[in-house]
Amino acid sequence: MSDNDIPSVIETASEDREGAAIRAEFWLDADVTFLNHGSYGAVPRRVSAAAEIWRQRMERQPVLFFQETLAPGLRDAAGVLAPFLGVQADDLVFVENATSGANAVLRSLRLAPGDTIVGTDHGYGAVRNTARHVAAMAGAALVEAKLPFPGTDPADVVRAIDAAIDGRTRLVVVDHVTSPTALVLPVEDIARLCRRRGVPLLVDGAHAPGMLDLDIAAVGADWYVGNPHKWLFAARGCAALWASPSARGDLHPPVVSHGYGAGYLAEFDWTGTRDCSPYLAVDAALAFYRSLGPARLRARNKALAAEGARIVAGAWQTEVLTPPAMAGSMALVALPFAVEPTREAARALRTQIWHEHRIEVPVMAFGGSCHIRISAQIYNEPADYHRLAEIFRR
Ligand SMILES: Cc1ncc(COP(=O)(O)O)c(C=O)c1O
Q1: Beta strands 330-334 and 239-243, pairing class
Q2: pLDDT at residue 13 in the model
Q3: How far is ligand 1, taken at its centre, from the CA of residue 179, in Å?
Q4: Atom 13 of ligand 1, nearest CA residue
Q5: What is the mean pLDDT of the chain?
Q6: Are 106 and 140 in contact (CB under 8 A)?
Q7: Where are the alpha helices (DSSP H) in 86-123?
Q8: Which of the listed residues 40, 99, 329 should we mutate to test ligand 1's pocket, taking the one with most ligand atoms within 8 A of CB?
Q9: What's the gap in Å between 119 CA and the centre of ligand 1?
Q10: Residue 9 has pLDDT above 60, yes or no
Q11: What domains appear along the chain, each with residue ranges and CATH number?
């Protein structure tokens, strides 16, 4: 199938059969209802094939590959990805995943006892842990702004973060799209706040590339990390870290290697021998994404997530917990019964749904309860949400 053969996206979600038509482009098993694009993405076959070609090139002459091909290849790949993200190629480096990019920024902080890092209670667990770790090493602390939930409003988010910042705050870290609650946070407003308060900002945009119309430079943060391997269809293990030119003097990758002290690109482009094929094949991911029509794809996925949430909440007689003003291609739906709000209970319910129904959907423990987080990607269609709706219909 060539790019031109991909059928055009149908915009009305309720009539949408696009998912079925495109499904064969992905490796996903035919009998799986896959409503969790958010956690790890799903890689199209043609992107895997492009990454495999890079791996074979690496094996044909490994020394030549690592000593001559890789460095310019990485810069070429950054040159392809950077304009899509609204940044300059020389300001963008590849890292394995969003966790690694956030680690680079957080572990490069020079904190003193009493300093604080401000995050939110909707932050991603691994990044919260990293912030806790670097704070603990320095006698500093992670302070988490409590965002109103449910019924979250963008202005309340900014107010809550503002209230958590004080004279000891050395960094604010926020998600662009929150993991446990699927909220698109007002990162431009948060960046304005941080500039006004004189505190640098790291945006964890793990879900943003491909889900949102993203222009990283326009966000106004100091650092931004995003995962092309989620909503941009890149091969897995492909994240991009952007650092504003004024915010990279002290920035080092989590793994320090030969490039130490030789500048941002030298430090991040070589962190030891590794498989860089997901980065090198990012052009194939972008080509696939573009072939679907980026603006229409984003609008279609957002509309389908909203419709899917309405279908499920309607059948379960519960509520959609994602406010339209903060919605992307995922949505949170309340369960029709109480589940203990622990990670273990959430995992047990996810496992049960998978084994009994072959529906893959994450269960999120948050705010004193457990909720279902659905997602909508090009391979989904309304029938997927109807299948989920039936399992707990009231
Ligand atoms: C907000 C957020 N940050 C970070 C991550 C971690 O991404 P990765 O596993 O690529 O590091 C996720 C994963 O879903 C996420 O939702």
Answers
A1: unpaired
A2: 54
A3: 7
A4: 39
A5: 95
A6: no
A7: 98-107
A8: 99
A9: 15
A10: no
A11: 3-44+294-391 (3.90.1150.10), 51-287 (3.40.640.10)
330 contacts: CB under 8 Å, gap ≥ 6: 37, 38, 177, 182, 207, 305, 322, 373, 374, 375, 376
Ligand 1 centroid – CA 394 distance (Å): 34
Model confidence pLDDT, tens digit, residues 134-174: 999 999 999 999 999 999 999 999 999 999 999 999 999 99
CB 373, CB 182: distance < 8 Å: yes
| pLDDT value, residue 137 | 98
C-alpha 38 – ligand 1 centre gap (Å): 9
Distance CA 223, CA 245 (A): 10
Residues 6+ positions from 132 with CB-CB distance below 8 Å: 142
Indicate the pLDDT class of residue 21, thresholds 50, 70 and 90.
Answer: confident
Helices 294-316 and 382-391, interaxial angle, to 10°?
20
Going from the C-alpha of 232 to that of each of 42, 238, 285, the distances in angstroms are 10, 10, 6
- DSSP secondary structure code for residue 67 in this structure: I
Amino acid, res. 17: R
Which amino acid does the sequence have at 124?
A: Y
- Which residues, 6 or more positions from 29, have their beta carbon under 8 angstroms from its beta carbon? none
What confidence category does residue 7 fall into, taking pLDDT thresholds of 50, 70 and 90?
Answer: very low
C-alpha to C-alpha distances, 297 to 100, 231, 253, 302, 376, nearest whole angstrom: 28, 11, 33, 8, 10
Ligand 1 midpoint to CA 183 (Å)? 14
Cβ(207) – ligand 1 distance below 6 Å: yes
